[in-house]
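Dear colleagues,

As part of the handover before I leave the project, I'm documenting each prediction I ran so the next person doesn't have to rerun anything. This entry is a single chain, and its sequence is reproduced below.
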Amino acid sequence: MTDTQEYRFVIDAYSPETLPMSRLAEYMADLARLLGRAERVHFLRLEPGSTVLVQSVEPEAVPEVRKRIRAAARDDAPADITDAFKALNRHLANDNAIGSLHEVGDGEVIRFPGRELPLPLTFGAFNQPGVLDGVLIRIGGRDDTVPVHLRDGETIHVCNATRNLAKRLAVHYDGSTLRVHGDGRWERDADGCWQMKRFNITEFSVLDDAPLGDIVGRLRDVDGSDWKDIEDPTAELQLMRGIDRAH
């Protein structure tokens, strides 16, 4: 394979002259996520008529990009592909538009229904007790209610705490993982995902981040502990937590 492959993303609601630059940037970012191989996919031009975003894919990346595009139509597509597909559809629906992705030389490969999507069921915000885990990465504020930021992997939970509770939390800044209890306000968005709108911390505990082997060693050192007689403590702990090792 020696030639690049071009893909055309067609939006029927705009012309290049009327498409806002900020919206163009959003379409381009989500289209790049859908195609993947960002370092091998390049934006070429906007074509007139409707709005047509033209991309070229370097030869060595064509098989992988083509595989991702075919996967987008399946129910079992990887999460990153599904998320990009939904984001593009959401932009199109908000713009009262329909979109399509064409492989030059092979016609339409994905259709984006956009405005034709049925309106999703949504739920208004409601309050419910909850539990969040995370490492304290930011805390502070001058009001009686203090913002508290917890990092859980790539997710940042933005919570609130009273000043007295915030003082107790502050000593664990950038330390062990915390488990916070409190009252949250939740809302389901148009994609069916639950979004936390607010979380007021009422109490917390510090989780033990020690490796499993260290924890088992501590248990075995306790006088009278039965853990000394357990041949596979890891399996026993998983059993206690309801984890089936066969899965």
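The helical segments are 21-35, 62-71, 79-94, 163-170, 212-221, 233-240. Confidence is low (pLDDT under 50) at residues 241-247.

All the best with the project,
I.
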